[in-house]
Amino acid sequence: MSASTENFLKTIYCFQKLEARDTKPGSIAKALGISNAAATDMARKLSEKDLLEYRKYQALQLTPKGESLALQVIRKHRLWETFLYRTFDMSLLEIHNEAELLEHATSDRMAEILWNYLEKPSFDPHGDPIPNVYGFVDFEKDSKVLFKTEEDREYRIIRLVSNDEEFYSFCCDNKIEIGNEIKVVKQYSKNQLTEISIHGRQIVIPKEFSNNIYVTKVNEQ
Amino acid sequence: MSASTENFLKTIYCFQKLEARDTKPGSIAKALGISNAAATDMARKLSEKDLLEYRKYQALQLTPKGESLALQVIRKHRLWETFLYRTFDMSLLEIHNEAELLEHATSDRMAEILWNYLEKPSFDPHGDPIPNVYGFVDFEKDSKVLFKTEEDREYRIIRLVSNDEEFYSFCCDNKIEIGNEIKVVKQYSKNQLTEISIHGRQIVIPKEFSNNIYVTKVNEQ
DNA sequence: TAAAAGATTTAAGCATACTTAAATATTAAT
DNA sequence: ATTAATATTTAAGTATGCTTAAATCTTTTA
Ligand SMILES: [Mn+2]
Ligand SMILES: [Mn+2]
Ligand SMILES: [Mn+2]
Ligand SMILES: [Mn+2]
Q: What CATH number should be reported for the domain holding residue A158?
């Protein structure tokens, strides 16, 4: 499988997870930075290889075979991210960018070596689950983006996902890190702002950032 | 630069070092496992990009630009080899095979991170020198293959280079490791066998293996 | 519900990286 | 010095992965 094919399958898989997004060729094309025509073309080719289902003007859907391949690429991606993050002094964005390349140059044997070395990790440094060698993904905690949380409740940060340098910089500056607990103070719905309290400080977070911060309710016994 | 181009330049560079081998398209094709026609084609394209000099029926020669690119790929290859060897339980052949893939998926930044983490290594685990970021290669010791050594002299092993699993297995079984000292007992020239003494044991090595073992004279003061 | 806007597909074309088969040049052998 | 063997190049063709422009379909909106 070429890097182009791997990225294509991976993108569809990720879009399907985020039910909000449609998986028509156009969206995939945009995410990959290629033309709509190229994405349609790829879709037809991959459907001939039984990696996805494609009917004109419909959303693309991975076949079990396609999903399995996507999961193997995602596994390699997240294993590299975890390894790079633990081993070197690299940021959450840097590890993603390097893993985006390395994932296509990783033998199954190499993935196994990383997996064992890292002691079978379940989550990568962004809080995303790492599929096992059979493509099985660990139970994902019930999560929502900060943008959609309720006022006056406590949450724990469990995922930070973005391709934006400034987002990670913002998180870093404001102690927004996986595992930390926060309280949602107020939702300024009209202006799409979320005010939270973290480490005793109040901060107001615009939609552009709050949409990338996933949280889970803190168990208030 | 594509992986194909990188492998092509790298192979020419390595062949040029080993003066024994010619660098006509045919030899490169054989080494890369592609057809002669494909190699000729690639040679013409790369000469248009000023990466090498190509005149019909002549040996290929890297331009300064081509050599510089080849050295960067070799640098990445050998940095990965060194890193994998030190970090995981991988053999001299395994690290080579993985590095062959990883070298094409490595940003300059990633190479720098490896280089610093490894504390600016000069040699990879096979004993091959690692070019620095400017493509400068450390002084290489005066070496020859075991096959061409003189009888009744002492040598130190400084390089082991091969793509053959059995070769490395042989080395391992017989304590043929970089740094170890040996004595050449006898050259059976007609049968192309070299008898050496290592760790008190005598072993006879056929040309297929002795050609992959590089040694340097031990300084007898 | 019909036109306008927007998305998707088709068509034509290009670059890369390969293939096999035929033509041609070089090298080795008689 | 020819001839034969070998190597190299050219030619024609294929698959992948992209492009832009035009045609077609779907969705929105008036
Ligand atoms: Mn990728
Ligand atoms: Mn991740
Ligand atoms: Mn390679
Ligand atoms: Mn090496």
A: 2.30.30.90
Cβ-contact A76, A106 below 8 angstroms: yes
**CB contact at 8 A, A76 and A82:** no
With 90 as the cut, is the pLDDT of residue A138 above it? no
If residue A184 lies in a helix (H) or strand (E), which one and from where to where? strand A181-188
Instruction: Report the gap between the CA of B80 and the closest CA in chain A (Å).
Output: 12
How do residues A31-55 score in pLDDT, each as one tens digit?
Answer: 999 999 999 999 999 999 999 999 9
Could you tell me whether strands B201-206 and A181-188 are parallel, antiparallel, or unpaired per DSSP bridges?
A: unpaired
Question: What pLDDT, in 10s, does the model give residues A10-19?
Answer: 999 999 988 8
Residue holding tokens 């107020």?
A186
* Amino acid letter, A179: G
Of B18, B36, B62, which residue is a domain's last? B62
Number of domains in chain B: 2
- Residue among B102, B107, B113 minimizing CB distance to A105: B102
CA distance A55 to B60: 50
Position B23 in a domain: yes
Assigned domain for A132 exists: no
**B46: CB partners within 8 A, 6+ apart:** B5, B8, B9, B52, B54, B66
CATH of the domain at B31: 1.10.10.10
In a domain, B75, yes or no: no
Angle formed at CA B215 by CA B214 and CA B220, multiple of 5 degrees: 175
Of the pLDDT bands very low, low, confident and very high (cuts 50, 70, 90), residue A20 is confident
Model-level pTM? Answer: 0.93
Q: Which residues of B touch A88 (CB under 8 A)?
A: 113, 117
Residue B109 lies in a domain: no
Among A109, A110, A114, A116, most B C-beta atoms within 10 A, so best to mutate, is A110
Nucleotides of chain D touched by protein CB (<7 A): 7-12, 16-21, 25-27
Domain that holds residue B8: 3-62
- Per-residue pLDDT tens for A177-214? 999 999 999 999 988 999 999 999 999 999 999 999 99
- Minimal Cα–Cα distance from B102 to chain A, Å? 5
